[in-house]
Amino acid sequence: MIYKRGTGDLFTKDGVFIKRLHCPQGGAGKVTITKDFLGNLKCVGCRRTIVDTSGLGEDEMLRLATMAPKTCFAIDMRRCQVIP
User: Domain count of the chain?
Assistant: First the structure.
């Protein structure tokens, strides 16, 4: 995957746009995450549930972002090529 730090945009390795990673409360890359009592990831700022994408492939992430555009993603940056 490719992560564009300046905009928060996430792309597949082939350059297909997946989604913009942005929290209205925290901005791109500035989100505090906690777990609820069921173990689900939650954003402290906006209280939305966050999908841990570590077990998802690019195609699954693209499909999820297309079907539910407001879905919040937690991304393992070690899987990404980070560009300015």
Answer: 1
Rounded Cα gap, residues 29 and 36, in angstroms: 21
Rounded to whole angstroms, the Cα distance separating 14 from 37 reads 38
Cβ atoms < 10 Å from Cβ of 43: 19
Range of the domain at 77: 2-83
Q: What is the pLDDT of residues 17-59, one digit of tens each?
A: 999 988 777 655 566 889 988 889 998 878 888 999 999 999 9
pLDDT value of position 22: 83
